[in-house]
Amino acid sequence: SQPAPESTSAPEVQQALAEKDAGNAAYKKRDFSTALQHYEKAMQLDPKNPVLLLNIAAVKMETNLYQECIDTCQKCIEICFDIGGQLVTIGKAYARIGSAYQKMGDSVKAIQFFEKSLVENFDRAVEKKLKEAKKAKEESDRAAYVDENKALEHKDKGNALFQEGDWTGAIAEYTEAIRRNPQDHKSYSNRAAVRFVRFPIPMVLILI
Predict the structure, then answer these.
(1) Any residues with CB less than 8 A from the CB of 146 and at least 6 apart, and which?
(2) Under a CB-based contact definition with an 8 Å cutoff, are residues 68 and 60 in contact?
(3) Which key words are in the record (predicted)?
(4) Which is it for the CA torsion 53, 54, 59, 62, positive or negative?
(5) Helix axes 87-103, 107-120, angle to 10 degrees
(6) Which residues contact 158 (CB under 8 A, 6 or more apart)?
(7) CATH 1.25.40.10 residue ranges in the chain?
(8) Which DSSP string do the residues of 82-96 spell out, in sequence order?
(9) Which CATH class is domain 148-196?
(10) pLDDT score recorded for residue 207
């Protein structure tokens, strides 16, 4: 016959719950050192409780120990898979990993784990974080693309193509120059000039 499942009213589990509650109280007071002590004691008493690891990970996050937060969440996920039926907790763990990566400036991994979280358990707060991470990545990509020297090269190529009468090529070069340096008004002006020259208005265009 199968052994009876361990009762949740076992003294160790009750003690663990008391330690968790004490940890939560300390956490709310932002006494993270005391909170961590209580959570770790609770883990010793109830080592297969993934929620306790989530709480420990929260402390690590608040104390800027982001890699430790990630490692703790990974342990939480492993326990969840072992005991089964913990989709909400797994979702929260993935979301916390995503938040840690976001704090570390790694938007790519943050997006990856926020998406994993939403697969396990839909949460509007996590969905919002995912959108923020995607926006941060887009801004980071744009900033990384800026290069004033290359912008100047493309502007000069645009000027040359304009003089040759290749308006389409000139517009493409000015557009790339703008992408490389959005702060340079000259490329905007030159691109506008190329577009304007198509109209039959007598004028002299001077590229800058």
Answers:
(1) 180, 181, 182
(2) yes
(3) Coiled coil, Repeat, TPR repeat
(4) positive
(5) 170
(6) 169, 170, 171, 172, 173, 174, 177, 187, 190, 191, 194
(7) 48-145, 148-196
(8) HH---HHHHHHHHHH
(9) mainly alpha
(10) 61
Tokens for 89? 């907790």
Torsion region of 154: left, alpha or beta (phi above 0 gives left; psi -120 to 50 gives alpha): alpha
**Nearest by Cα to 70 from 47, 96, 52:** 96
State residue 197's pLDDT score: 76
Residue 104 DSSP SS3: coil
Size (the chain), residues: 208
- Encoding tokens for residue 174? 């000015």
pLDDT reported for residue 136: 94
End-to-end Cα, the chain, rounded Å: 89
Homologous superfamily (CATH) for 48-145 = Tetratricopeptide repeat domain (1.25.40.10)
Q: Chain-centre distance of CA 106, in angstroms?
A: 6
For residues 93 and 71, give the distance between their C-alpha atoms in angstroms, rounded to a whole number.
10
54 Cβ neighbours under 8 A, 6+ residues apart: 73, 76, 89, 92, 93, 96
